[in-house]
Design brief:
With about 400 residues, the chain is α/β, with parallel strands linked by helices. The chain is about 50% helix and about 5% strand.
Length: about 400
C-alpha cells in the first residue's frame, strides 16, 4: 500500500511504525471474512480493511479524526483479522496508533468522556471496584432487569495451598478478577501444588495496564506496566520460573510488555524478560499428568479472542479437559468474539449484546451442562445471558 503520511507523523516513532504496517497490507479483504463487526454491520468502515484505510487517510491528513474514531471505537480488538491475514499485518499495533492520533486531534462529547474516565479510575483499582460492585449488589433487587443481569453473584475463594516447593511461579491478582471470581487463582494454585510447584501471589502488582490501553490512555497504561514489573522483579531475580496468567486478556498484554516498553531505557530489558517469563496456565500444565475428573461433565468451550488470536493458543485447553474425562460439544463459529472485549461491552453495549446472543446460541445449541472459558471478562459477559453456569476451565481440574 502506497503511503504519504504528513511530515510531523512520518518522522515520529509511531509514524514510522504505522507506515511499515500499512505497507504490508495488500487490501485483499480476507480479514473482513472473520471480523465480527463487519459481519454484523456490513459496513466496510467497520471491518479491518476499512479501518486500515481510514487510519491511513487520517495520518495523511485526508480524513477527519472524528469520523475515524467512531469506527475505531467499534473495533473489538479481537485480532481475528491477524489470524486470517495472509500478509501478516500487525493490525492491533496500527489500531493503537490510530486511536492515539484520533484521540489527540478530536474531542469526545462530555458524557462519553466522563464514562471513559470513570472506567479508568475504577476498574484498575481492586478496592474501588469492589466497593462499587458491593453497592450494586445491595440495590440489585431495585434495579431494572437489564442492569440486574450485569451484577454477578458473589463467588468465594477456595483454600490456597500452604505447601512449600522448590519450584516457584508467580501469579498476579489483577484488578477485577479477585473481586468477580477469587476462586480462579486459588484453584490454579491447587492444581500446580499437585505438580510440585508453589504459586506465589504478587499482591502489589495491581492492574496490568490493559484497561488504560483499551481506553487510549497509553502513558497511564505504561505506568501500570512499570509498576507491575517493579512488583515482580525481586522474585524474578530470585529465580521464579514463570509468571502465570489465568485471565487471557491480561496474559496477552503481559506477553507484549517488551513491545510497549521497547523505547524505555530503564525498562526495555526488564520488560522483555518479563514477557518471556509470562505463560498462560494452559501452557504450563499441557504436558503434565492430568487427574481424571471425579464427575465428568459435558462442556461448551468458549476460547477467548485474547487466547486464540492474541496469544495464538489453540487446542490446548480442549486437550487438557478431554484428558480429564470431560466431553466437549461442538461450537459453531468458535473463532468469533463474544462481545466482552474489556470495556467494549459497556461502551458499545448494543453491538456487544448482539454478539453475546449469537455466541450464547451457539454455546447452548448442543445442551452442555456448563460453559467454560479462560478470561474473566468473557465469563462475566456470557453469564449475563444464560442460566447455565459459566466458569473458568481450571476449576474443573481441582
Amino acid at each position: 500500500m502506497e503511503t504519504h503520511l504528513t511530515p510531523d507523523i512520518q518522522n515520529s516513532p509511531d509514524g514510522k511504525e504505522a507506515e511499515s504496517i500499512l505497507r504490508t497490507c495488500v487490501h485483499c479483504g480476507f480479514c473482513n471474512a472473520t471480523c465480527p463487526t463487519y459481519q454484523l454491520l456490513g459496513d466496510e468502515n467497520d471491518g479491518p480493511r476499512g479501518r486500515i484505510y481510514l487510519i491511513k487517510q487520517m495520518l495523511e491528513g485526508k480524513q477527519s479524526a472524528t469520523r475515524t474514531l467512531k469506527h475505531l471505537d467499534r473495533c473489538l480488538t479481537c485480532r481475528n483479522c491477524e489470524t486470517t491475514c495472509p500478509s501478516g499485518v500487525h493490525y492491533a499495533k496500527l489500531l493503537d496508533i490510530g486511536r492515539k492520533v484520533a484521540e489527540a486531534t478530536t474531542s469526545r462529547p462530555p458524557r462519553e468522556q466522563a464514562t471513559r474516565t470513570l472506567l479508568r479510575k475504577t476498574l484498575p483499582y481492586t478496592k474501588r471496584f469492589s466497593t462499587l460492585l458491593g453497592s450494586g449488589r445491595l440495590v440489585k433487587p431495585l434495579l431494572p432487569t437489564s442492569l440486574r443481569k450485569k451484577i454477578p453473584q458473589k463467588r468465594y475463594a477456595v483454600q490456597w495451598p500452604e505447601t512449600t516447593h522448590e519450584r516457584v511461579m508467580l501469579i498476579l491478582d489483577g484488578c477485577v478478577q479477585p473481586v468477580l471470581s477469587p476462586d480462579i487463582n486459588a484453584a490454579t494454585a491447587q492444581v500446580l501444588d499437585r505438580q510440585g510447584i508453589r504459586l506465589q501471589r504478587v499482591p502489589r502488582a495491581g492492574c496490568c495496564g490493559a484497561v488504560s490501553l483499551h481506553l487510549a490512555a497509553e502513558e497511564e497504561g505504561l505506568q501500570f506496566m512499570r509498576h507491575t514489573i517493579d512488583a515482580c522483579w525481586q522474585d524474578i531475580e530470585k529465580g521464579a520460573e514463570a509468571i502465570i496468567s489465568t485471565a487471557s486478556g491480561c496474559g496477552a498484554l503481559l506477553k507484549e510488555y517488551g513491545y510497549y516498553l521497547r523505547h524505555d531505557p530503564n525498562y526495555a530489558d526488564k520488560a522483555k524478560r518479563f514477557s518471556e517469563l509470562t505463560r498462560d496456565i494452559a501452557e504450563v500444565i499441557s504436558d503434565t499428568n492430568i487427574q481424571p475428573a471425579k464427575q465428568p461433565k459435558t462442556l461448551a468451550w468458549h476460547p477467548p479472542c485474547t487466547l486464540q488470536h492474541g496469544q495464538k493458543i489453540t487446542g490446548v485447553v480442549e486437550d487438557i479437559l478431554t484428558r480429564a474425562g470431560h466431553t466437549l460439544v461442538p461450537v459453531h463459529n468458535s473463532h468469533l468474539c463474544c462481545g466482552s472485549a474489556g470495556t467494549y461491552s459497556i461502551l458499545q453495549a448494543e453491538i456487544a449484546q448482539q454478539l453475546q446472543q449469537q455466541k450464547i446460541q451457539q454455546l447452548q445449541k448442543h445442551q452442555p451442562e456448563m460453559i467454560v472459558t479462560a478470561n474473566i471478562g468473557c465469563q462475566t459477559h456470557l453469564q449475563e445471558a444464560t442460566d447455565l453456569p459459566v466458569t473458568h476451565w481450571i476449576k474443573l481440574l481441582v
